[in-house]
Write a structure and sequence with these properties.
By secondary structure, the chain is α/β, with parallel strands linked by helices. The chain is about 40% helix and about 20% strand. The longest helix has 19 residues. It binds [(2S)-5-oxo-2,5-dihydrofuran-2-yl]acetic acid and magnesium ion. The site of magnesium ion has 7 residues, from loops.
């Protein structure tokens, strides 16, 4: 089987409710659908969600780098030759989301050709993931209402609270309101998206000391090298690295430097091949992971779940797999369902993605 073509299709689906956080805001899923065609007639599929404010990629840049550089680099290769594809793509630095979508589409093809799911191909640990839901910036009342609604509708009881506003008292009030409203029936953790300085983060963590937070993600920027180490040393909760660790080398740097205790793995930015490396690296170093969300649509969430469920360590914690609930629509013929706080992995073969062509025609932006 050989790769005969790669399509990068920009599409946009509006959000019902924008998601706001310290580094930006998302009000439409302006993503790129990636399809890898083969001479066997099989098509591998994945989606690339650009986050310009985080990695500098845009919908336009992702399409351009795939059309102009990555597609020509993989044409004629066997989808099994993922290491060759990666070696060729690695000549171009950056562009993690574009590379990852292509990588996941290749794994989809390998799974399809063998007749097995990607979860089984990777590790086959379980067939489902517990789900954590992200609460974007709003008033304490609105965020408590949102958590109650999501718990009622989908049985989700783990919430990641977006923090990093200034003054931090706004976010402390939200976390306190959530804990008071739900007591010990919910798990809470926070994500600052680099919004605070190390000293602001230290004060905020101290003010939330009694709230039983499971961990705190990316409270201040990785470039605050000494400040981050200082923060980690005194933090009463484990600190996780997210956008500071887009590569395995970054993971090494953050962990060995004492700047993080755990790692967020996002298939949108490390695909399956590199996510696997990061996961094994964390396992080898005895470090916790969480399956994060790059504000993926249903295709991306399905990919995260497929990876998370494949391994013991990545399925241990609830994964962030519910951002698609904020979208008005999506491209799958069979929408994802979160039931009793869990998302089941598609049984495949491959990733089990089937695109509704009528919806793609409606939302694609290149025609
Ligand atoms: C998160 O965990 O930070 C926000 C920006 C991004 O790249 O991912 C989201 C969620
Ligand atoms: Mg994060």
């Amino acid at each position: 089987m050989k790769i005969t073509g790669v399509e990068a299709i920009p599409f946009s689906v509006p959000y019902a409710k924008p998601l706001r956080f310290a580094s930006g805001e998302v009000s439409a899923a302006e993503h790129v659908l990636v399809r890898v065609h083969t001479d066997a007639g099989l098509v591998g599929t994945a989606e690339a969600p650009p986050r310009p404010f985080t990695y500098g990629e845009t919908q336009t840049s992702i399409k351009a780098v795939i059309d102009g550089i990555f597609a020509p680099a993989v044409l004629g290769l066997s989808p099994l030759a993922r290491e060759v594809a990666h070696q060729r793509m690695a000549r171009t630095v950056g562009n993690p989301t574009a590379k990852s979508a292509l990588d996941m589409a290749l794994w989809d093809l390998v799974g399809q050709s063998l007749g097995v799911s990607v979860t089984d191909l990777l590790g086959g640990f379980t067939d489902r993931m517990r789900v954590a839901h992200m609460l974007g910036f709003d008033t304490p009342e609105a965020m408590v209402d949102e958590a109650a609604r999501i718990r009622e509708l989908h049985g989700i009881s783990t919430f990641k609270v977006k923090v990093g506003r200034r003054p931090a008292a706004l976010d402390v009030a939200v976390c306190r309101a959530l804990r008071e409203a739900f007591g010990s029936t919910v798990e809470l953790y926070v994500d600052g998206n680099r919004g605070w300085s190390p000293s602001e983060a230290a004060r905020a963590l101290k003010a939330m000391e009694d709230l039983d937070l499971s961990f705190a993600e990316e409270l201040c920027p990785a470039d605050d090298v000494l400040g981050r180490r200082w923060l980690v040393r005194q933090s009463s909760v484990p600190t996780f690295a997210d956008e500071s660790v887009p590569t395995p080398a970054d993971v090494t740097r953050e962990l060995l430097g004492g700047s993080a205790d755990g790692i967020s793995i996002k298939t949108a930015r490390t695909g399956f091949t590199t996510s696997q490396r990061v996961l094994f690296q964390c396992e080898g170093m005895g470090v916790d992971v969480v399956m994060g969300n790059q504000i993926d649509g249903q295709i991306g969430s399905l990919c995260s779940a497929a990876f998370g469920a494949a391994f013991a360590l990545s399925s241990r914690r609830p994964g962030e797999l519910s951002n698609f609930l904020d979208m008005t629509d999506d491209l799958l013929t069979e929408p994802l369902q979160i039931v009793d706080g869990e998302l089941a992995v598609r049984q495949g073969p491959g990733l089990g993605i089937r695109i509704d062509e009528e919806k793609l025609t409606r939302y694609r932006q290149d025609r």
